[in-house]
Amino acid sequence: MCSKRKTCHGGPSQQEQDSPAVANEVFVIDEEVSHLTRLKSEPSERTRACLHAGKSHISTFKLLSSRESNRSGFGRFSSADCSYALRKHLPVRGPWCVDNMDCAAYISQFSSDGSLLIAGFRGGRIRIYNADKKWKIHKDITCKSLRWTVSDIALSPDQQYLAYSSLSPTVHIVNVQNALKQSHANSTDIHEGLNFSAADDESSFGIFSIKFSKDGREIAVGNSNESICIYDLGANKVTERIQAHVADVNAVTFADESSDVLYSGSDDSLCKVWDRRCHKRTKPVGVLAGHLDGVTFIDSRGDGHYFISNCKDQTIKLWDIRKLSSATKE
């Protein structure tokens, strides 16, 4: 543990109890002790006995099989069994610093195979790190025409291109697999701009969320114009606009490989399901109500049934779109 403060056996003094700093320090120490204890825990004696395991290692598969067949007689995991199963899946090393920048990191994400980490910074910089090469910088990108910050980033399915957005109607795309390590917009490298604004609309809006379709042919965005826009990269134009919510659309993603169904999340606290095959595309095929504040992020399982949403109410929810909310709940 990092803390070196000594505590007497009688507990903290009245002065220590009245000090917020000390209270916070005690809380942190307790959390660290709890975490380390869980990492070093063993399954219950009853579980070991019913599996005839002795002191040998018990695989997660055996634990789950034992629970499902109720071999222990509990019908569930004990707290010790839960901790033992979790310890093999919780991070036990780190955290450690990958890079130091002179501006705040606003967004980051891993590639689908976990080999690349992409981070966007307030100063108009994006850096891509190679996780397989000790976090060596794979590409250092200086962005073009940013407003305030990089609001979102998306890597194409083949990991060839990176799309980045800002609080403007333009998304830029850059090749991240060419030989150049330094990519300065339209100086050492081309950052192609995709304009999402309508021809007859002079108002400006910011883009909060961008996502490639599974085949890499389309890009969907959610924006401050309360809408979802879909850009066809082959036709080089916006092909669909959906007036989706009554507040900023902070998150949008494709449900599966077909790219026919989309999920969206908004500051109106709702998640919505859209089917592009329906004639009335101005209306969602389903609404999922339950969050108490703005939805900030959505990630699909990719099977067309499940997705998770993150919200400003400090909750993450797992949704099954086969069980949509009623109109009364919405």
Automatic annotation (TrEMBL):
Family annotation (InterPro entries): DCAF, WD40/YVTN_repeat-like_dom_sf, WD40_repeat_dom_sf, WD40_rpt
SUPFAM superfamilies: WD40 repeat-like
GO biological process, one term: proteasome-mediated ubiquitin-dependent protein catabolic process
Keywords for this protein: WD repeat
Source species, domain of life: Eukaryota
Any Pfam family hit: WD40
Region annotation (Disordered) ranges: 1-21
WD repeat residue numbers: 242-275, 288-329
A cellular component term, taken from the record's GO annotations: Cul4-RING E3 ubiquitin ligase complex
Protein's UniProt name: Uncharacterized protein
Native source organism of the sequence: Aegilops tauschii subsp. strangulata
